[in-house]
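The material for today's practical consists of a large collection of protein records. There is nothing in a record beyond a sequence line and a structure line. Backbone structure tokens are a discrete shorthand for how the chain folds in space. Nothing more is needed to start thinking about how sequence determines fold. As an example, a complete record with its sequence and its structure tokens follows.
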Amino acid sequence: MTTTAITNIAGLVTNDPALGDGSPLGLIENAAVVIDGETVAWVGPADKAPAADTVFDAAGRAVIPGFVDSHSHLVFAGDRTAEFNARMSGRSYSAGGIRTTVAATRAATDAELEANLLRHLDEARRQGTTTFETKSGYGLTVADEARALRIAAAHTEEVTYLGAHIVSPDYAEDPAGYVDLVTGEMLTACAPYARWVDVFCEKGAFDGDQARAILTAGAAAGLIPRVHANQLSYGPGVQLAVELEAASADHCTHLTDADVDALAQAAGTTVATLLPGAEFSTRAQWPDARRLIDAGATVALSTDCNPGSSYTSSMPFCIALAVRDMRMTPDEALWSATAGGARALRRSDVGTVTPGARADLALLDAPSHVHLAYRPGVPLVSAVWQRGVRAV
């Protein structure tokens, strides 16, 4: 098997304090990484690197773990440009939001949906993302939800069944009937393609009792819960996520002290995944990452890439937002976008640059990872390795 040494690294982020400077980032200066096949074989000072078959000179630039985007909605058709334009222009807009995307997605062919997914995956990879989760939720029929998950499962291990995104327009007058569908026939059709089950627990979507029924049914089918929680208002989502030992409570914008305490106490089980692209794109209240981190909660950052409320695939952009507007330090934001995302997906093989981990790395055209927040909007990712193969 061919080995590759990436050497002359100014600053290597390992996310293992024992390997580096003792900080959560485990930073090693003047470092090298040796890749063997799909995995990291060695990390340490460049002058102690073992011989390898090929050598890549990082030329005094920084190397970080590939980003782990643990929340996205990439199986869709169409866009919602008119909705965004109206919102940013201060005009009222009466179109159907998610329902607009549902109609476009239902009308699209499998080939069109897959092509759109691949376009967004390539876009994300060029910005350093090497692991991603994505959801269904824009079909809302048995056949459309199942095909969305089947398409997604061909390109990632991290697939989430989100039949409970909103109540299907077909069941507008019978939400209880739709919950029965989501927990019954639709779940049976979708579970073989998914690892996770999710629900949008929010006013106008699904209340606490409905969300509990959906997540419990999904867990009984072998899926692990995650929850869209407390995005638009205070509600039961976070408490439900903690109670059901969900892998993540996502959004976490409107939190009571009890919610923060619950997430802190469940830090080893339930990650608070923050999605600043949604607040940026809707001019909504920012999640308070500082409050969660200081309380002891585990925090992840993700893009929430979707055509309505966060149409970005850029993890570097989300890092910059988190530092500027959510009171995170550059170190915290990078950890949350890599190791934090891995925790939200209950993965130990990604989000780190440590021996035995998957060889997913990004080379920055900068001497330090701090430039991700320091130079927002600049395309700093100059090379990406995914499973040990140069992908960008």
Notes: The longest strand covers residues 54-65. The chain has a mean pLDDT of 96.
